[in-house]
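REVIEWER CHECKLIST
Item 1: Sequence provided? yes
Item 2: Single chain? yes
Item 3: Sequence as submitted:
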Amino acid sequence: MWSTEGPMSDDYATLKSAVETAGFFTTFQPIKRPGDRIVCASRQRNSGLGGNSFWVAKRGEAWFIATWAPRIYRVQESARLTELCVLLLQREDEQAYFDFDEAVRAEFGLVAIRDEEFIA
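Item 4: Structure as written out by the authors:
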């Protein structure tokens, strides 16, 4: 089962609060250790989260946002991270993201990185 607490979860408190205040859902789904990644989703189901969904992770001072493909991006404008997440959750498509569209990547300064560049 997914952990809701962990040594890194405090780093995600502002994002978690903003997403949930906007009416969406979050959970921690560890990559390697509890609290090292937060999942954001537009819907909650009996079996878990769904709808528009993606994950966010912080490594050092850098923030990353990723789709389930996975396509991983470094967030250049970390001050706009919560704005970005809420925007993505408000989209009408209601499906897990394969990739983020070019306009969103440009507006929020998302920089694509290779899977091996992301330090899990």
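Item 5: Key structural point noted by reviewer: DSSP finds three helices and six strands in the chain.
Item 6: Recommendation: ____
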